[in-house]
Amino acid sequence: MAGKGGKLCVVCVSSMALALSCTAHAQWAPQYEAGYLYDTNLSRAQTSEDQIKDSALVARAALARAFPIADYADASVGLDARLTRYTKSHGASFVALGGSAGVRRKLGLGLTAPWIALEGTASYEDAREDIRDGTRYLLSATVGKRFTPELDASAGYAYDRRVQREEYAEDAVPGYSGKPFSLQGRSWFARVNYALGERAGLIGAAALRHGDVVSSTRRNFAIFTGSNAIAEDPAFGPDFIAYRLSGASTSTFTGGISWSLASRTALEATLTKDDTTVAGGLDYRAVIFSLTLIHRQ
Amino acid sequence: MKRPIVLAMLSTLSVAGVAADLHAVVRSDKGEPVRDAVIVAVPDVAPPKPQRPKLEQVEQIGEEFVPKVKAILVGSPVSFPNRDSVRHHVYSFSPAKRFDLPLYVGTPAKPVVFDTPGVVVLGCNIHDWMIGYIYVSESPYYATTGNDGEALISGLPAGDYTVRIWHPQLADVVENTRRKLEANETADMLWRVPLKPEVRIRRAPTSTRRGPY
Question: Which residue among B85, B203, B208 places its CB closest to the CB of A27?
Answer without folding.
Answer: B85
